[in-house]
Design brief:
By secondary structure, this protein is of the alpha/beta class. The chain has ten helices and seven strands. The radius of gyration is 18 Å and the shape is globular.
């Protein structure tokens, strides 16, 4: 794949002259400060008035065939820079490696095998695999909504052991290669950019995680190195 020095912000276009654009563009500039993008199509970033689902503040629509991808971000999103970078990670995964539009490099590309190996060896992935292996039960709340849960044993500060319910659909979603890539890409940009405001948003995201989805400082270096090697291999850094 030939190197390209095109900026990510040349490909990812929020609306012009809009408050939403002023919220999102700094995240794109931070990405530009870390790497270029290869040969991405020019895509639209759309604000949406309502959340996109339970625990979802944004969505990457890959587009099939000749249809271009679209990123949608909720206007009320609490962590817009982190969310924007996460969705750009999906765009890179889906359209950055010269694959058909219905394929994802994180899942099949030999270029990302070192990254897959690094991610698989982390404690975050080990715990997600463990949670996914536990027996699943269907729970129903007072409103009649039901979901699958597993029960994880947790030791409290006083030594007591309790069983904590964990959303199985969240675990299955989080362990997918494309989600692991987007989350690790966010964390890579956070640390490579060194931006204090982005770091603060990222810390707030981590505090709100019901299941640990991102990596602690001593768990992430092999993943960081794999992404950095990939960036240099394809000519984006």
């Amino acid at each position: 794949m030939p190197p390209s020095r095109r900026r990510v912000s040349d490909a990812v276009r929020p609306p012009r002259f809009d408050a939403f654009s002023r919220t999102i563009r700094p995240a794109l500039r931070l990405i530009d400060s870390v790497h270029r993008d290869g040969n991405l199509p020019t895509i639209e970033v759309r604000p949406v008035a309502d959340p996109l689902g339970r625990d979802s503040q944004a969505q990457y629509w890959p587009g099939i065939g000749d249809a271009l991808p679209v990123i949608e971000i909720w206007r009320g999103c609490g962590f817009p820079w982190v969310v924007c970078i996460h969705e750009v990670g999906h765009l890179l995964d889906n359209r950055g490696f010269d694959l058909p539009s219905d394929q994802w490099a994180s899942e099949i590309s030999p270029l990302l095998q070192p990254w897959r190996d690094a991610v698989s060896g982390t404690r975050v992935c080990e715990r997600l695999r463990y949670l996914n292996s536990l027996p699943h039960y269907r729970e129903t709340d007072a409103n009649g909504q039901s979901w699958l849960v597993c029960f994880e044993e947790v030791t409290l500060g006083n030594g007591a052991v309790i069983e904590r319910p964990v959303d199985v659909d969240l675990v299955r979603y989080a362990i997918a290669w494309r989600e692991l890539f987007a989350r690790s890409y966010v964390q890579y940009i956070v640390f490579e950019s060194g931006d204090a405001q982005l770091m603060e948003q990222f810390a707030q995201v981590r505090v709100g995680e019901s299941v640990v989805l991102h990596w602690n400082g001593d768990d992430f270096p092999p993943v960081h190195a794999a992404i950095d090697d990939l960036m240099r291999l394809v000519g984006w850094r």
